[in-house]
Amino acid sequence: MAQFFNKSANNIARISMVMGVVLAALGGFAFTQLARSSYLTGQFVEKQQPVQFSHKHHVGDDGIDCRYCHSTVETTASAGMPPTQTCMNCHSQIWADSPYLEPVKASFRDNKPIEWERVHDMPEYTYFNHSIHVAKGVGCSTCHGEIDNMPAVYQQNTLQMEWCLACHREPEKFIRPKSEIYNMKWKDGDLDAKERLDLKSDLKIRSKEMLTSCSTCHR
Amino acid sequence: MLMNNLAVQDKRRKAKGKDVFKRLGFAFCLLTFTFLTACGVRSDMQDQPRYKAYKKSEFFSDKRGSRDMVEGTIPRGQLRENKAFYTGKVDNPNPAAQAATTMDATGNTLVTSFPNAIDEFPIPVTKELVDRGQERYNIYCIVCHGPLGNGDGMIVRRGFSKPPTYNDDRLRNAPVGHFYDVISNGWGKMNGYAHVIQPADRWAIVAYIRALQVSQNPENALKTDTTKTGPGSAPPKSGDTPTGGKP
Q: Domain B83-228 carries which CATH code?
């Protein structure tokens, strides 16, 4: 009986085995990369808003405190979106005739809220509360990045669970004194390791076990 | 030969059996694949049918998921009985006693008499209150009134009308209730801030404004009657120290 397979089939079989493993690994790697890509997480994607509002101008140039507009960040889950009246506190006079302000004026005139595009859209099976984070030493820029340099706001971080957990496991690496929460220029290197641990106990931050318990964020 | 034939048939039968399993397996995979692609990725958990803050609603005609309270509703514990604390005005204001006003050079309408405003802080003035007031002042007021209350804030430098300074005799002698009323309801070009600053914080800001006034006029402030203008010595009203209507 003649040989069914050519002699080269041995090599093909070996190469196939190796390549099978390599391809599977590559496929797995590609999947993890895709899952973390800004295509799926929305990271770094600037959102177009109904008003050409620039945080760079209002925060960076004018020095307005975050809480002037996001006034409930210290008391409620939502940081708070300003009512159109807050815009009109200044823009009743400043740039009042600018066409860029027309959507704001229309909103004020017709008593209809401006429909902003949500930039940070947490999945609704998660529980997130701004007030506890700012009360425990997590600064705005730790999660939101340097907003004072963002003409159009984008999502600075992935908002994936591994990102949340990185801080919930080791909060001392990310916290800052409560007086610096709204400081956009704060750098993590401003405190050394011991000061961070002291700050963690001063702020009464709970144990890693408590912070990484499922029901802390999924409730 | 016969044996040989039987063996071949047996082999074929076995092969046929394997084929059936293969086909079943293939059909199973195909079905799973079809179901998965037909259903797509479901996001019911991601977007749940409930309202979070500011979520759009298709149910209400104004499309707002966040609803205003029905008019006249009083949340438990937030009945605003203490008139001095919540309005900065005396208990029985005289409607005939209108505030006298003048016009200054820049077109601001200035109040010169304060008939119904209370003259004493309705809560104890402590260092904590003044510190809190400083923090709140630097968020909401500093943008126009400036760090010292001279009316030279960043928004004024950008072109907004210059507000009157706190550091003149008219406002040094104005009762605290006047400042509280202006924070709450606005005055002239300034909008009211009642929707962002809670009553207790408004009093904290008033206390800090008094501190600013003293800081810019130390010699005279120490000479005058400190029970009236000094932030550290206003007597608390007996027994009643509301903490403000926090949500």
A: 1.10.760.10
